[in-house]
Fold each of these.
Amino acid sequence: MSEDRRHVSIKGEQTMSRGFIAQYAAEAALATAGVASLDRSVVANIKEVIGLEHEGMGVRVSFRTEDVDDVIITVYPIIDFGHVLPEVAWSIQERVKRDVESYTGLNVDAVNVHVVDIICNDSELSAPSAEMLTAE
């Protein structure tokens, strides 16, 4: 029960795994402008190599309580250089909350965004040249 969220209603029983919710959250985060990718933990990489299931890459899902369908989502994005970090984080929060709530029917209590890295696709900006280092 710690891995799944079970919902019983007059229409029957519905069970959602954390991985299912994490996948929707990961897709929503990756579709946000300024997000290059999501951070893959070492544990997720090892689980993938040996064929075990893991939550969506760069996303952690936890449930608030056993009785209420409140979920807390934590996203670990890698951002493209040149984007305003607070704006990207806010967009991730809005999109993840909207998509997960609409697809699963769960109440997203919080979306935490922890920016892991900023990457620069331009080779001139990513590594200083020898001339730049020696020039004064």
Amino acid sequence: MKDQAERLRQMVMTLREKRDKNRGGPRVIAVTSGKGGVGKTNISVNLAISLSKQGYKVIIIDADFGLANVDVLLGIIPKYTFKDFIKSQMSITDILTEGPCGIRFISGGSGMYDLVNLSSTHLERIVEDICKLDGWADIIIIDTAAGISNNVIKFAVAASETILVTTPEPTSITDAYALMKAISTLKQEVRINLIVNKAENIKEAVEIIDRFADAANKFLGITVTKLGYVLFDGAVTKAVKRQQAFCIASPNSYASKCIQTIAGNLIDGRYNPNIRVSGIGTFIKRLLGRR
């Protein structure tokens, strides 16, 4: 019993040490992709849940304004969305929605033209109010829209790090590279974490990751962190149809195990041990173009 108690104490201490990395504020991570249909939002949702299961407080901000899907994937109808935030004087903490396994999320709303084309005033109000989330989360995941729009690039540049999601399809890889190049023109220290989704096998995933990282280093001078891959898995499609996270619906599936590995890599800094957390304050300044 004493040995068990000691092991428990060690586990708690280890978790606290990992959380100490966030003293500068929550870790702000933008999850993005060069094109739609690569499973970016599914990665965001399941990664958030996996991190929450490890004891971290996680908030997802669905920044695909007007075309949000986080709530759809979770099968949750949020009481409030960014639409309510924009149309009223509600605080950003008022529109938080409880999700599974302790995560929280903010829905980007859907079917509203005003959300798709936010004015600079509305965008500034959103990002400045995000400061109020300091203390609510250890990790904030920004699920951006797909493609190379101004909003996508702004969020990617502002975040302390970016997770770039691609699939083995040549068009997806090409668009992911183009997005990374666009980000690099506006940010000196680009921190790109690459995930290959829907890979047929490990060999294919590793080859794509290596080729992408080599090209980024050779032609752009960017060191890409090889965060991991998610194998193609029928359990993912089934979970989407049931509006459940696949790591909950099928925790022992190949895809779920891949996500668990990615979450571990992200937290342990296995591939990027020198990561520095800039926190919400720096995120807001970058997003608004301030120094």
